[in-house]
Inverse folding.
């Protein structure tokens, strides 16, 4: 059964990012990520222009999923303030970064979430919301589909499977039923019909220690089955690899799968994924304003390698452009098989 | 040499079969790979068929490989279990349908 509280509340050693990094470092692996990237002709790993500002607005969540790399949950208090959001908006205004990717936790539970969306969309930026779906069924959030539609927010929603078994195993009992109800509400608001500009993406990640399925192969089947089973429509399916971080790392250890899973990630290294890694065109902002190359580095306390621009208040695109991307063994999760990113697979 | 016929660590050595008769092995593995690609059937459907056949031929290597492969292709345990039931139904049915032969034999010699 899913755990009901976070690593932090349980005072588990893995609540410490340093402990997580040490756990990964202690594993006997055939090679390091830097060696693999070098062999792929991409070392040191350099950023392209920033295409997405990914803002993690906090760790509060109404769910406590077993695979969560954020260690989010109802007991987490870390929350981005409106002042820090304003700094993010100031950074956006000083650039032409086209996309804003809002994540958490359940980002909608941040009391300033809607203000952030309104401000970013008013600046003409494309806004994505990483939605766990069930948040739409919580108190005070019933009008979220209409809010999203009004601001043309792209909804990127988590659903492990189009059937109930695996969804509830990963995310908690009853989550599937609520998720389907939320998807129907999004459809009613105009999402997922393939004609309007209201884009609804579903994200699936494995419920266990294995790689995700082929995105191209499965999307048609998911569309057919969700329509057949529930009359639900959506636009695209992203298949994402689970990262050996936080609660998923804990599960890998407890189920005695960690060594084999890491070996699988390393042996499945796909050089063709390196050019499209999300860390190369994304800048990740933590709830406290600190900057990272990606949300995974954020959870491992691996800040950007740019001494003069480590916080959003010091945002300096020129300084950030010359940095090397910080990598670790967890990065094999983004390069295994077809690759993985917040936008799904990286290679066919 | 292990003291039992099946060893889980043997599976990664499958390609070693190509150390002899390499041309035949090359043809087999190329064909094998092509069989499981997306086609008129999806790779997920093919993986479920493989899982069912693995149970029908009772190959522990294949059951190991295709239990994981079916998950990685996007099936869940309910779907995989139904596939195994299909294999079991055909195996059981194959036995039972031979009862027609039994009946014919008994009819021929019986009063």
């Amino acid at each position: 059964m899913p755990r009901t509280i976070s690593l932090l509340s349980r005072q588990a050693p893995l609540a410490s990012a340093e402990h997580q990094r040490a756990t990964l470092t202690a594993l006997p692996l055939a090679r390091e990520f830097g060696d693999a990237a070098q062999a792929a002709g991409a070392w040191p790993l350099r950023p392209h222009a920033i295409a997405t500002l990914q803002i993690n607005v906090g760790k509060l969540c109404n769910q406590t999923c077993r695979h969560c790399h954020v260690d989010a949950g109802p007991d987490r208090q870390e929350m981005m303030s409106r002042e820090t959001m304003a700094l993010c908006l100031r950074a956006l205004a000083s650039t032409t970064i086209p996309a804003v990717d809002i994540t958490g936790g359940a980002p909608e539970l941040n009391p300033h979430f809607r203000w952030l969306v309104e401000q970013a969309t008013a600046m003409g930026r494309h806004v994505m919301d990483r939605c766990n779906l069930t948040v739409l069924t919580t108190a005070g959030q019933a009008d979220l589909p209409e809010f999203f539609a009004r601001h043309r927010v792209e909804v990127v929603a988590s659903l492990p499977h189009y059937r109930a078994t695996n969804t509830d195993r990963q995310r908690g009992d009853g989550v599937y039923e609520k998720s389907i109800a939320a998807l129907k509400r999004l459809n009613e608001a105009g999402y997922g019909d393939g004609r309007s500009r209201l884009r609804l993406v579903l994200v699936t990640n494995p419920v266990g220690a294995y790689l995700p399925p082929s995105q191209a192969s499965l999307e048609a089947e998911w569309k057919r089955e969700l329509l057949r089973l529930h009359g639900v429509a959506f636009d695209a399916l992203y298949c994402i690899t689970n990262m050996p971080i936080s609660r998923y790392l804990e599960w890998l250890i407890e189920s005695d799968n960690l060594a084999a899973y890491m070996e699988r990630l390393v042996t499945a290294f796909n050089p063709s994924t390196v050019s499209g890694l999300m860390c190369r065109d994304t800048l990740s902002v933590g709830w406290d304003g600190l900057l990272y190359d990606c949300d995974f580095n954020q959870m491992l306390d691996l800040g950007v390698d740019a001494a003069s621009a480590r916080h959003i208040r010091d945002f300096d695109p020129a300084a950030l452009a010359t940095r090397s991307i910080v990598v670790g063994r967890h990065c094999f999760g983004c390069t295994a098989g077809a690759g993985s990113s917040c936008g799904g697979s990286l290679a066919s | 040499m292990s003291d039992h016929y099946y060893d889980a660590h043997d599976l990664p050595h499958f390609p070693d079969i190509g150390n002899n008769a390499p041309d035949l092995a090359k043809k087999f593995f190329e064909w094998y790979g092509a069989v499981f690609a997306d086609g008129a059937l999806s790779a997920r459907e093919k993986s479920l068929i493989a899982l069912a056949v693995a149970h029908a031929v009772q190959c522990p290597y294949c059951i190991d490989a295709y239990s994981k492969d079916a998950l990685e292709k996007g099936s869940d345990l309910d779907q995989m279990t139904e596939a195994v039931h299909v294999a079991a139904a055909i195996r059981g049915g194959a036995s039972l349908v031979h009862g027609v032969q039994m009946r014919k034999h008994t009819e021929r010699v019986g009063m």
User: Anything to note?
Assistant: Chain A has a mean pLDDT of 94. The first helix of chain A runs from residue 17 to 25. Residues 48-243+279-311 of chain A form a domain with the TIM Barrel fold (CATH 3.20.20.70). The radius of gyration of chain A is 19 Å.
